[in-house]
Design a protein that fits this description.
By secondary structure, the chain is mainly alpha-helical. Helix content is 64%, strand content 3%. The radius of gyration is 19 Å and the shape is globular.
Length: 262
């Protein structure tokens, strides 16, 4: 059975059902799934080989699969050379494939996020009208900031509320799940002191929210690297359960160090 929206959140919070069900979360499309649905291009093998490259260092299979994937893209008449950037800014949701303009996509994404806050979040926990408004302001604030610049104290000052209330709202937003967090890779004492970094489920949500307030994310190498890092972070959070978060944090830190030099 497939449950979406409020129904899925209600199941997630039902203690009796949690013990009796086996669930599989349906996340926004990764780029391989995007290619498959939009262009009927099967690049799944490349995803598997890249994962093997990261975890085992086997580069030969990844190079071969990359060459094959490039040939598929080159020979696809409908594929655009700007599709990668289009995916960053407007992708992740099959329901938006039939939209004719970028403006329509952004408007729909903003509407989806607002509906999640007003209708879905109260299914998790009772939330006041003021905190619904605060949740929307937090998402807009996230959209205009870099993850490293965000702290609970900054958000509390921005919203003129307590850090405890900010943490409550962030926890609810993660359960929706519009956002997710990455903890710092450090010793136990520093992990307690350092703030978590929060990311959107897809860069397209961040782009839509920033565009709504008149500051759409531009292109350029640095911004593309930032978007790529968010997608990579999300994929590692999906691969590793909470208990292995230190493994994913270590691997992501090593990859990020390499990204800083190119």
């Amino acid at each position: 059975m497939i449950f979406t929206g409020s129904s899925a959140l209600h199941l997630e919070q039902n203690d009796d059902l949690v013990r009796r069900m086996r669930k599989k979360s349906i996340t926004p499309l990764n780029y391989t799934q995007h290619l498959n649905l939009k262009y009927d291009i099967d690049a799944g093998r490349l995803s598997n080989e890249l994962r093997e490259l990261i975890f085992s260092g086997n580069i030969d299979n990844a190079v071969t699969s990359e060459f094959e994937a490039n040939n598929l893209l080159i020979n696809c008449i409908d594929y655009s050379s700007t599709d990668w950037e289009e995916y960053f800014k407007f992708g992740g949701f099959p329901i938006l494939f039939d939209k004719k303009t970028h403006r329509e996509i952004c408007e729909d994404l903003v509407e989806i996020t607002e509906r999640v806050i007003t209708k879905d979040m109260p299914q998790i926990k009772e939330i006041s009208s003021e905190n619904k408004s605060n949740a929307k302001r937090i998402l807009r604030y996230f959209a205009l900031q870099q993850p490293a610049e965000l702290t609970q104290v900054n958000l509390a000052n921005f919203l003129k509320t307590s850090t405890a209330n900010v943490n409550k709202i962030l926890d609810l937003l993660e359960k929706t799940p519009l956002i997710f967090h990455c903890e710092p890779y450090a010793g136990s004492d520093k992990r307690v002191k350092k703030s978590w970094k929060y990311y959107f489920a897809t860069p397209s949500i961040r782009h839509a929210l920033s565009a709504k307030v008149g500051n759409p994310l531009g292109g350029g190498l640095m911004n593309m690297k930032d978007c790529f890092w968010k997608i990579l972070s999300h994929q590692f959070c999906l691969i590793f359960p909470r208990g292995n978060s230190q493994i994913s944090q270590y691997i992501m830190m090593q990859i990020k160090r390499q990204m800083l030099i190119f």
